[in-house]
Amino acid sequence: MPGKDGILPLVSAQEIIEQIKALPANERAEVAKFVVENDDSWIPESFKEGMADAEAGRFADMETVLSGAKPPSRPAE
Questions:
Q1: Please, are residues 72 and 60 in contact by the beta-carbon 8 Å criterion?
Q2: pLDDT tens per residue, range 26-41
Q3: In this structure, are residues 53 and 73 in contact, taking their beta carbons and an 8 Å threshold?
Q4: Which of 3, 34, 43, 58 could form a disulfide bond with 72, CB atoms 3.0-4.6 angstroms apart?
Q5: What H or E segment, with its residue span, contains residue 68?
Q6: CA torsion angle for 59, 62, 64, 69 (degrees, to 10)?
């Protein structure tokens, strides 16, 4: 809660975690949903690249790849 100056006091991650643990299950789920939808820093870059390739139609089935065929190329960045 903000002080008289309107500034929120600093809290540690551990304090926030403890507050989340104390929430009812439905509110913890709401917090988890918010984090997943708004912070992708926990997702490896290689996975993000793979998802971008799939969304752009740049993918090959496993049999094609195992046969020695080259996968579609990525555009230069």
A1: yes
A2: 999 999 999 999 998 9
A3: no
A4: 58
A5: none
A6: 70
